[in-house]
Amino acid sequence: MDMTKRQGRALLLCGIALAVVLQSLCAAFFLRVTYDDANTYLLATGHRFQFEQNQLTGQWVRAAEWKRLVQRPESLGFAAVTNDATRVDHHPPLYYWFLHLWTFLLGVHLAAGKIPSILFNVLTSIVLYRTCRLLECARGASALAAVLWVLSAPTMDAANETRQYCLLALMIALFLASLLRFVGAASKLNSFFLLLSTLGTVFTHYQSIVVIGIAAATACVLLARRGEYRRLAGLIGVLILSVAVFIALHPTFFEAFRLQSRRGLALSWHTLPDRIRRCIFSVLNLFVPTEAAWWIYSHKPALLAAAVAILAALVFYLRKTGLRGYASALRERTSIPAVVSMLSLAAIWTLYLLHLTLQHAMGRKYTMVVTPVLFVALGQMAHRLWRARGLARWAVVALIVGQALVVAFFTYRTVRASRVDNGLFDDPSLPIVLDNPASGIVLSVTWRVQDGAQVYVDRQDRVLADFPTIASGLPRLLYMSDPRMGNAPERRAAILRHLHEEGYVVRPRNAGLFEETDAYEAAKAPR
User: N or C: more exposed end of the chain, with fewer CB within 10 A?
Assistant: First the structure.
């Protein structure tokens, strides 16, 4: 017995409301600006390339000079945003266009990029519910899929960063819904929506090409097997038109691929085990945040073995109930989500294992390119098990309550982790030396610093060479060191020795401040 229309919508709305509350708490209390956040704001305000050309390093300047680069845009300049994204970033510009308009209207602040992400998540969960209903899933199963998606670890993680992944999930969900409608009825309106959703998806993230290609190929096979060659020709025509329009609107897209190829690493066997581990975690993280997953993996291997055994038993059971034939038939559109999600995950893992994507590009938020399709498939599985009635109702309650507890714990950990500076930057008279000039690192630090504070930013080797001049006449200072972008612990140790030789007493203040930045307070010892 299925839920009534009112019950299904009530379950959906309650799940969405809980997700909005938890994600809003993260946005309100997580006060750190991450490396990616800072670079996103630079791109959205049209200042990313300007940062690369700045003359502020190697001298004492007020923190306000750095902050000018992430101020509210004075006028709309989408061309500048596109140029910045092309020259120094490897993502397409749609999200940056949106955030450029958003910050122009509402200003730049810590939650500027998080509020839209929460709104995107609400819309995506509604689209997922409607997509499941389009595939004739029960209302309860449809609501379950949408609620579990909006409360999943990847969704919560993506909502807490100023990045394009929540918009990507919305675009993928709209693309899937448009494709399913087109396969069901190839009207002009459905063709138009498929064209728009395809363009929107590719303009949000280039990795979506994998999902779009696999979904399109699956739909083509389905239509060919059904003998619907006219509709097949229409689908191919829409895809070709999408490619033509994309190239016409964004002709320099190939520069992004060239940039990513330069940033990629050569295939190396010694990193393969770590990449395999990341792929495994990307699946585990669909429901369990990394902190809990790592605890299971590191400290409780028996629990991990039990989880694998349960998963294997579930796959065996689903196969016995006919899911394999259901997914491989490829004669009905109901088979598309399961086939596309599995093949897309396999393709994304393969690209990652072959070092064709970046080292860090496998984790919670990076799976957002495929989770909307996967959770629709899970909704279909739930629908097939819905005949259990009482058991199904209790399973729904248990799944949603369990997922709510997991993400509530995740929210609690996130809020606690944001309180890291302990008033370290409240004193504008305390000079700051930062040994890493990378854009995301500089802005993640200066974002929290008082406008009038003096800041010296340069590479470690230059800080070492110019240290006597830098510290001349300063009774105290704050030395901040970040190990990324080529920095070495040996040079950090040498800078700390310089501080001691100059008569400073150094004490560590915060480790891991703003992701990986360590802070040391140095004061002249009294004579």
Answer: C
